[in-house]
Write a structure and sequence with these properties.
Growth Hormone, Chain: A
Length: 424
């Protein structure tokens, strides 16, 4: 075990947390949350239908879902640094192609590139090293990094301002250049495992089997381990819960500004609402990160689903005559959504351990995302056909309530996984 007197004052894992948080902020803000800010300008400029534009968000989600297992596996094998560097390149190219897109094919190509880059800079590649670097305070560390995605909401008014000043094409060019300048250097800070540097995960006291610095330390996942996990009831119950929540989140975050415009809320106001969702979600990410370190994660994630459902229900009845409903929507949906993100990441470690964390988390995220992408285009089709979002959010709230049933059937996590030893 390294001499305590020679340890740096700040555990390196916290520097990794800082870098991952900033990567999450840029990638989440520019690629995910920022889409709602260019939705209407693209529709007006290129004449695409709401369903066609929403399909781009779904293609982004489909690629992310398909690639999540691949990203998880590659992160386990190659480490997070290479994966996130690749993500910076793809995101930069995607925005530059989008800035020059004049046809629907070019528009979808741009989102294909963006989705590949977003997959590389997403939860599997950013949270996997945390599961390796932290035994204690994993929930807190995960909550901080996932708060970076929430801080990405700050990009919404920034993108709206860029669109006003430079047009939506100029705004996309700026975001593309920023990807190369911001994401690439941050990716260099990421490291795979502390054992590779002669250190232990944060909070681990047992130095047994600690490899010498420079000799590696990453062990490949056991053959058939993922297959064995997928045979268990917990894997598929978690997949159902995760999927329903992704359907709701994708639908709301993609259509929040168009929906508010449909009920005659000014665009200047709706941009702040769209920004408020991820920013307020930070409270849920940080608080639930602390909660899941101390309490039963099943009860905690159930609470986040109930909060999100109440928020979506408030959204359904929002109008110029009931603007007060904006407050419960922002508070309940945002906190529930943010806390749910942290608990999904935490529960994978809790139920399946850390040895194949990236692989398992990637597969679960992939399943949930591939199915979850139906949310935005279905909502877009409803609007195209009926000229209204009436009853859409009521259906989403019912789906969220239904996802509590598989959660009730979920067994308690194994003791070793709950104490941080499972799979290690």
């Amino acid at each position: 075990m390294p001499d305590k007197g020679r340890r740096p004052r700040i555990f390196y894992g916290w520097w990794l947390v800082a870098a991952a948080t900033l990567i999450a902020m840029y990638a989440g803000g520019a690629v995910f949350y920022g889409f709602t800010a260019i939705f209407e300008p693209i529709a007006q400029d290129l004449g695409f239908s709401y369903a066609a534009i929403s399909l781009a968000a779904s293609l982004r989600g489909l690629e992310t879902g398909i690639l999540s297992p691949v990203v998880g596996i590659l992160t386990d094998r190659w480490g997070p640094r290479k994966i996130n560097l690749a993500g910076a390149v793809f995101i930069g190219l995607g925005f530059l192609v989008l800035a020059r897109a004049y046809s629907l094919a070019a528009f979808y190509l741009a989102f294909l590139l963006l989705s590949v880059g977003n997959s590389c800079c997403s939860q599997p590649s950013l949270l996997t090293p945390l599961a390796n670097w932290f035994q204690k305070k994993l929930g807190l560390a995960s909550g901080i990094v996932l708060s970076g995605f929430g801080l990405g909401g700050l990009f919404i008014p920034a993108i709206v301002g860029l669109v006003s000043a430079l047009g939506w094409r100029g705004a996309m060019a700026v975001l593309g250049a920023g990807s190369f300048a911001v994401l690439a250097p941050l990716a260099l800070v990421l490291r795979r495992r502390p054992e590779q540097y002669g250190a232990l995960p944060y909070g681990q006291e047992n130095p047994e089997s600690l490899p010498k610095p420079g000799t590696g330390g990453a062990r490949p996942p056991a053959r058939g381990q993922l297959r064995q996990m997928m045979k268990g009831r917990a894997f598929w119950l978690l997949a159902v819960v995760f999927t329903v929540n992704i359907i709701a989140v994708y639908a709301v975050t993609t259509h929040v500004m168009p929906y508010l415009s449909s009920v005659r809320i000014p665009r200047g106001t709706s941009q702040w609402v769209a920004m408020g969702v991820p920013l307020i979600s930070i409270a849920g990410r940080l608080f639930l990160g602390w909660v899941c370190d101390h309490y039963d994660s099943r009860l905690a994630i159930g609470g986040t689903i109930a909060l999100a459902g109440l928020g979506v229900l408030s959204f359904e009845y929002l109008s110029t005559d009931s603007l007060w409903l904006m407050l419960p929507f922002l508070l309940f949906f945002s906190v529930g959504y943010g806390g749910n993100l942290v608990l999904r990441a935490y529960m994978v470690r809790e139920y399946f351990g850390r040895e194949s964390y990236g692989t398992v988390f990637g597969v679960l995220s992939g399943i949930a995302t591939v199915i979850g992408i139906i949310g935005p285009p279905v909502v877009g089709l409803v609007y195209d056909n009926y000229g209204s979002y009436h009853n859409v959010w009521l259906v989403v709230a019912v789906l969220l309530a239904a996802s509590l049933l598989p959660l009730c059937l979920l067994p308690r996590a194994p003791l070793k996984a709950r104490t941080g030893e499972g799979g290690a």
